[in-house]
Amino acid sequence: MFKKFINATIYKHDYASEILVEDGKFSSFGNNFGEADEVIDLEGALVLPPYVDAHLHLDYYFTGQDPQIKNESGTLFEAIDLWNDYKKGTTKEEMKSRMRQAVNDVAGYGTQYIRAQTDCTDPNLTGIKAAIEVRDELKDNITIQVVAFPQNGMYSFEEKGQTGRDLVEAALQLGADCVGGIPHNEWSPEDGTKAVKEIVRLAIKYNKLIDVHCDETDDVEARYLEILNAEAMKQGYGQSTTASHTCSFGSTDDAYAFRMMGLFHQSGLNFVSCPTENLYLQGRQDGYPKRRGLTRVKEFVDNNINVAFGQDSIVDLWYPAGSGNLMNILDNGLHATQLMREEDFPRNFDLITYNGAKLMQIEGVYGLNEGKPANFIVLDAPNVFEAQRRRVDCLASVRNGDYLFKKEKTTIHD
Length: 414
Description:
The chain is built from 12 helices and 19 strands. It is of the alpha/beta class. The protein has an 8-stranded parallel beta sheet with strand order 7-8-9-12-13-14-15-16, sandwiched between helices. It has a 5-stranded mixed beta sheet with strand order 2-6-17-18-19, with no helix packed on it. It is globular. One of its GO terms (molecular function) is deaminase activity.
């Protein structure tokens, strides 16, 4: 069966205004294809590959609404302590219910791919089991990668005779897709370094991807990013490794950053920045000037180092807001990182599409290319500049050529 989508503005296909889909896959991009079994008029709207949320904690979703627990300091570390107590009272079914709702929320904005950071510092692995089941149950409509994330540390956590490191390995054996870590939350630099080395070793042993919460701190002396990059580079594993947050790298001196940029090029390391959450969490001990708490996104873009954006949290103990709308994340990120030069607007959507797909290593099935699954979204704008300027809504999400949802166009007056 042939479907033809006409009158479209297609991201990075300036020559084409029509999309031909056959049996759920992209058949061709061009113009005036002729007859089809079904013709769908997109009325000049912008077509993008689906949004990719490269960093989202599904298991934390809406835990911030509990009136019994409040993050009074607004800091990362108080949130971790509060979550450590909260999670002991959760069940797999309760966790799955919140995860499903989180997925429904973000999917309603056009996201079809999620890298789900999932706490595994729980002897019962409740969150991991819940996330794997949700991943498998919803796979037809959304692609989820589950990260075995030791929120309380690989070596600073031990319960019932199991360390965080033991639980990471157990989560991988259950079917988690990525090895996570948080070396800056270990009790000493020695343990942080040991954790990074073990993360890389486990990833290679189980043939998994790596995604580390790395240097999510204002400490300009934090150097776990350098250690992670070195270990990945030694093993030829850089392209399979992602450093998330790397807030301190945004505060370090330029001479050090210059050296590291060259090493990132050699390793092929990927990065994720979470603009709204790190703007909110970081710089808490600063007076003025107050640091933004973001990594060097603009410099990564300019140096062709892969970097993507993520929502991170939705109404949890770390972040009291959030909706899962990646257009909002992009908008905040572009302002905070000053990616609004003339050359930026045509490529900015890569930060929430292609760049995330690259670090998730799903490029073989992702993107607006012939032969790939016909997965795309439709935005209420005639071009990329207007879409970013007006922060437009997602009108439709299409999976394998069929609508997941479709909304009516709106008229916006400035």
